[in-house]
Specification:
- This protein has a 5-stranded mixed sheet, with helices on one face.
- By secondary structure, it is of the alpha+beta class.
- It starts with a helix and ends in a 13-residue tail after the last helix.
- The chain is elongated and about 75 Å long.
- Strand 10 and strand 11 form a beta hairpin.
- It is built from 10 helices and 15 strands.
- It holds the Pfam family HTH_1.
- InterPro entries: LysR-type_TF_proteobact-type, LysR_HTH_N, LysR_subst-bd, WH-like_DNA-bd_sf, WH_DNA-bd_sf.
């Protein structure tokens, strides 16, 4: 029995919550995964996983064994990288997740830079706005806008995104253009709400270094960034969004910035990954590349780009 391979299988079963998912993730026959776990348990003399027809759960011994496996495998990967060509040319599958807008508009168009530099890394990219359980879903790294709420993850700040308030040209033609907060009376907004927590978000403005929250009447509420933008383009009211997300629509005149003297607070963009992945050469080079990408001139992260 290859104990390290068996440990990889065991940790992936724990992370993904099932034998079949682990087998698919590792591209192994499902029978091989079952055999490896049985051999590992026989070698250790303990039961690691409690199996039922509906779910897989850790035994007490399995719960104690899992974090040790994670550390050992991370140490092994880093040790091999130090003493092999992988140090300069890391290889393998890297699973990342990011908001669809960041992925479509910023990261994926620039991704050939990364793959030319690291041709042996295969990327598995998820594009969505929902929270991701990195351990259970087997994700190596996520990009998220806003405050990093999970303190169990390593956070690498990337950039502070400028946000703007905008509306469609058609909406402003019907309702008028507000020039200050007092002009918002009689206007409406598109409301964004979290599909996970149900929390609802109004408009936010920085006034004399203080955050001011304003709720306006609304006809439409959505729980995705793309839907939020689509409702704005359809004329349902004001939205606040990172500049990069609407840069094209602003340039084409379909959307117009308003209240540019009273701006929303900036939104931090952060790369997050589990502590045991900070030794992974694949994760490190990808996050380092993201830092470089965010610092490159020409990225539409900053409102100053409105002036050309």
């Amino acid at each position: 029995m290859d104990r390290f391979n068996a440990m990889r299988v065991f940790t992936r079963i724990v992370e993904l919550g099932g034998f079949a998912k682990a087998a698919d993730s590792l591209q192994l026959p499902r029978a091989s995964v079952t055999i490896l776990i049985k051999q590992l348990e026989a070698h250790l003399g303990v039961q690691l996983l409690q199996r039922t027809t509906r779910q897989i759960s850790l035994t007490l011994d399995g719960a104690a064994y899992y974090p040790r496996c994670v550390r050992l495998l991370a140490d092994l990967e880093e040790t091999e990288a130090v003493f092999s060509a992988a140090r300069n040319n890391p290889k393998g599958l890297l699973r990342v997740d990011m908001p669809s807008g960041i992925g479509r508009l910023i990261v994926i168009p620039a991704l050939p830079q990364f793959t030319r530099r690291y041709p042996l890394i295969e990327l598995d990219i998820g594009l969505n706005d929902r929270p991701v359980d990195l351990i259970r879903e087997g994700v190596d790294c996520v990009l998220r806008g806003g405050a990093a709420l999970d303190e169990s993850l390593v956070a690498r700040p990337l950039v502070m995104l400028d946000q703007i308030t905008c509306a469609s040209a058609e909406y402003l033609a019907r309702h008028g253009t507000p020039h200050n907060l007092a002009d918002l009376e009689g206007h409406q907004m598109v409301e964004y709400f979290s599909g996970t927590t149900g929390k609802r978000f109004g408009l936010e403005f920085m006034v004399d270094d203080q955050l001011r929250l304003i709720d306006l009447p609304k006809h439409v509420s959505v729980n995705s960034a793309d839907g939020y933008l689509a409702a704005c383009e359809a004329g349902y009211g004001l939205i606040q969004t990172p500049y990069y997300h609407v840069a094209r629509q602003l340039k084409e005149g379909r959307l117009c910035e308003v209240l540019n003297a009273t701006l929303p607070p900036g939104m931090p963009l952060t790369a997050l990954y589990p502590p045991h992945r900070q030794l992974s050469r694949r994760v490190r080079v990808f996050v380092d590349w993201l830092v470089e990408l965010c610092a490159q001139p020409g990225n539409e992260f900053y409102r100053k780009d409105l002036s050309g």
